[in-house]
Amino acid sequence: MHISRGANAGRAFSAFKMIRWFGSAGDLDAPVPQFAAEGRRNVFKNLSISLIAAWLRMARGMLYRWQAVCVRDLGRAQEENESAEVIMGTLKAPLLISVALAIHCTLGWRPVLAQEAASSQPAGQPAELVEILVTAEKQATGRSIQKVPIAVTGVDADTIEQAHIQNIVDVGHLAPNVILDTSGTLPGTAAFTIRGVGERSSTASIDSAVSVSQDGMVLSLQTGLSLLGTFDTESVEILRGPQGVLQGVNAAGGAVTFTTPLPTDTFHSSASVTTGNFNLVGVTATVQGPLTGNVLGKIAVSEQHVDGYYRNTTDEGSYVAAPGNPTGQEPRHSTGLTGGTQTLLIKPTFLIQFNDDAKLKVFAQFESDIDGGASPQAINPNPAPGPVSKFISVFGYTPTPQPYVTNISTIGFTHITEEHLIGEFDWNVSNGVWTTIAAIRNVNFDSVFNNAGSPFNIFLVDTKEENRQASLESRFSAHVTDNLSYVAGTYLFTDNLPVTVVNATNLSELGKKPLVPNDPNSPLNLDNQLIQYNQKTSTAALFGNVDYTIVPDLTLSAGVRYQYEHKNMDIQPGANAKGVVFCTPGTLSNCPNVFYDPSKTWYTFTPRLVLAYQVAADILTYASYSRGWGAGNFNGSPSTLGAAIVAANPETVDSYEVGFKSQWFERRLRANIALFDEAFDNIQRTAITSFDGAHVSTLLNAATATIRGVELEVTALPLPGLKLNLSGGYTSASYDKFTAPLSPNAYNPNEPPTELSFNNLPKWTTDVGGSYTFNIPRVEGEFELVGDWSWRSKQFGDFFNTPQEIISAYGLLNASLNHTLGPWTVSLWGRNLQNTYYAEAAAIASGWQLFPGQPRTFGLTVSAKF
Asked: Up-side HSE of residue 734: CA atoms within 13 Å toward CB?
């Protein structure tokens, strides 16, 4: 079915915005464009703002009470009475000022309390590894990671703080066979894989095969996921292998869960200030404590700014006259640092204890990320046996790449806002706990992206996305007897995803004559493909898992999930049966105006079976079978009408795993190992193919494959104050057969399809690190040295294993030196200390590009906890 609509139907899209951003020359001092709300104010946003405003008022009141208590406890009530009245009367003071006043007030007494707490610990108690609790099993209480028969990596708050782990990308380097990188093609977009299962795509309509959740809410949209930070995070759990029963759809590869700490029942505050190279400036502040007798509250605020990590220049490359640049002149464009970011995060959290059996947890969040745009770097590899890149043949430009240096005409920008509200109600009923989690989330994404990464406007992408999701999960977890426990529940989810994309391709790239020959970067030299769609998803599921102790220490766990998912795609694809249909060159006039509304429904059944044997108190062995599935997807970046209206079916993973978890030497040594064998069927792959001179994206159910591998994680306390950790993973993935015809690849024409390697999958991943706590004679306080080195082997950057897109092996060294005295900690830290130039992604668009990671960064952080 199709419906004819006016050219301006759906969301209005202004060509003036494109002209403003796609101009040939820029001004470094030009103001950043205003990211207007464009009518996005809605009930949810008003609710979030009201909630935050109310919490700010309560937080101030809490601080004032704290200050009064502080004054009283110091015995200075009379002396400070006058100044306290001044503080109490400053009702319009910013919250951070209130935090500073509270910290100032407590300087006289909190260190004493810390010393008292330290002296109360038993002397001579042997050190042992910290126990990490896993909550992703969704049982009534968390279990020790050593008791959970799943390959899982747990990262606690102390590790996050000590190692200065900033975001989910950093977390991904700590776990074996895990890649949690950005896609490269759009800043902030996830390209997550676990054990080789996952897909690198920046198309919003394509769901990830790795589930990411925060405080029980699944984050369904890939956009913005790679920016997910670790500030105000209690723990991160990375579950490797299919998690189809408890984590549900899109957990075919595994799952990553973030948990926010609940507020404390006593008043506490913390704050930090960070400065570093690239003009990094960051501040954080957290205040928490009781608001009333049964209500605890916390607000955590973080703000960070960095100018940029890459130097954009015109002093790169050589030029000769060519069809796309008849003058052979170097294009003019703005120069300076690119890739800068400005991030603001506000997280209010509440805990309401109705009685001994009922409590409500409320998690709210508002985040704004403004990015200076991605920084792809044009490279010039030997193209043989394929044709010379169009950088040279069409535009006369030969790149001369330098580390962390770009030569980009239109830098672009990215602005992401995310806000969510989560309520978790826990009710102790008889022998179990009934948990209900209701959540709503709102993401806005606005971006202009230079996909070719060159001094010419060859392929520019202007994207707007608005995602609204709501979910409800209700489950009951109980112990029936000492030998029998279970969890059972239901899950409902819906979301709405309107998207507008303009793919602007240079006329010369398409083999057409430019309208303004002497200005290659004129917006009139762009052929625009306008894509508009609104994808709606509805999901419902029933799930359950039973644990039964057959004989002492031998437990059988069995679970199942039955899920329904329906997707409706209302799309104007900017294409017909023959291929892409462009608007009038240089404008958004006379664009296609026919909408189609394909839909598809899928029903899935995902079982799980685990047999675990507790050999000794600290030794667990297990064998398991589990199935996971990745959602069926419509392609929101189609090159033909068929690609837009035909959905790729869900992919499935059947995994067989054996594992061994152990602790030795009074829990000073922890060693875990897992071996797995996975059958990966109906694999979805995004292949880049050529159409009418342009490189386009096609989504396919391409193949079936077998994935095998091993993972090792070791942590040890060999000496007092010394902690060492090691993780390593090996993954061997091979295609068994292809179920879809593949377009030939000019740069790798003789490779049989089944001989292709998985793209974006390093065979080896390793991480080696440690920390050493020590004292220096005649120097007060405690020192801690923390180091970490992670390494990934070579990987292919694209589906066809194009030799020019190979991502070389690389290792990253991070370290910090921390000094703690009383409530204060001063940290000198550095990341990628050897300044390794490495790529996180590779692509082709007129020529080849690498998307570099971050260069060496270093800085100083001063923090205090009270």
From this structure: 8
* Cβ atoms within 10 Å, residue 465: 22
Give residue for tokens 């208590």: 69
Is the omega angle on the peptide bond into residue 326 within 30 degrees of 0, that is, cis?
Answer: no
835 contact partners, CB below 8 Å, separation of at least 6: 403, 855, 856
* pLDDT in the model for residue 687: 60
Number of H helices, E strands in the chain: 9, 42
CB burial readout 91-103, b (16+ within 10 A) else e:
eeeebeebbbbbb
Torsion angle, CA of 234/240/245/249, rounded to 10 degrees? 90
Q: Which residue has the tokens 């057969």?
A: 737
CA atoms within a 13 Å half-sphere pointing along the CA-CB vector of 67: 25
**CA nearest 19: which of 319, 401, 382, 448?**
448
List b or e across 396-411, with b for residues whose CB sees 16 or more CB atoms inside 10 angstroms.
bbbbebeebbbbbbbb
Relative to beta strand 235-240, strand 152-156 is antiparallel
Distance separating alpha carbons of residues 102 and 59, to the nearest angstrom: 11
Residue 60, phi then psi, degrees to nearest 5: -60, -45
Instruction: For 269-308, write each residue's pLDDT tens digit.
Output: 999 999 999 999 999 999 999 999 999 999 999 999 999 9
Q: What is the pLDDT of residues 299-354, one digit of tens each?
A: 999 999 999 999 999 999 999 999 999 999 999 999 999 989 999 999 999 999 99
Which residues touch 388 (CB under 8 Å, ≥6 apart)? Answer: none
- 3-state class percentages of the chain: helix first, strand second, coil last, to nearest 5: 15, 50, 35
Q: How many residues does the chain have?
A: 866
- Rounded Cα–Cα distance for residues 48 and 39 (Å): 16
Round to whole Å and give the CA distance between 579 and 587: 19
Among candidates 501, 585, 529, which has minimal Cα distance to 185?
501
pTM of the complete model: 0.86
What dihedral do alpha carbons 697, 700, 703, 705 form, nearest 10°? Answer: 70
H/E stretch holding 20 reads: helix 15-22
Q: How confident is the model over 168-189, as pLDDT tens digits?
A: 999 999 999 999 988 766 777 8
Amino acid letter, residue 451: N
In SS3 terms, 372-395 reads as CCCCCEEECCCCCCCCCCHHHHCC
Lowest mean pLDDT among 122-131, 654-663, 728-737: 122-131
**CA-CA distance, 611 to 609, in Å (whole number)?**
7
Long-range contacts of the stretch 385-391 (C-beta < 8 A, 24+): 385/746, 385/747, 385/749, 386/746, 386/747, 386/749, 387/746, 389/846, 389/847, 389/848, 390/324, 390/458, 390/509, 390/846, 390/847, 391/454, 391/846, 391/847
Q: Output the six-digit token pair for 196.
A: 């080789």
Integer Cα distance of 457 and 18 in angstroms: 12
Q: In which element (H, E) is residue 99 found?
A: helix 95-106
Q: What is the pLDDT of residue 525?
A: 96
Instruction: Report the C-alpha gap between 599 and 583 in whole angstroms.
Output: 27
pLDDT at 572 over 80: yes
Return d(Cα 339, Cα 311) in angstroms, integer: 9
Count of beta carbons in the 10 Å neighbourhood of residue 260? 20
3-state secondary structure of 671: strand
In whole angstroms, what is the distance from residue 442 CA to residue 47 CA?
A: 12
Q: Are 248 and 543 in contact (CB under 8 A)?
A: yes
Q: In angstroms, what CA-CA distances link 652 with 283, 305, 567, 630?
A: 44, 41, 18, 6
State the pLDDT confidence band at 70, using cuts at 50, 70 and 90: very low
Count the neighbouring beta carbons within 10 Å of the beta carbon of residue 706: 13
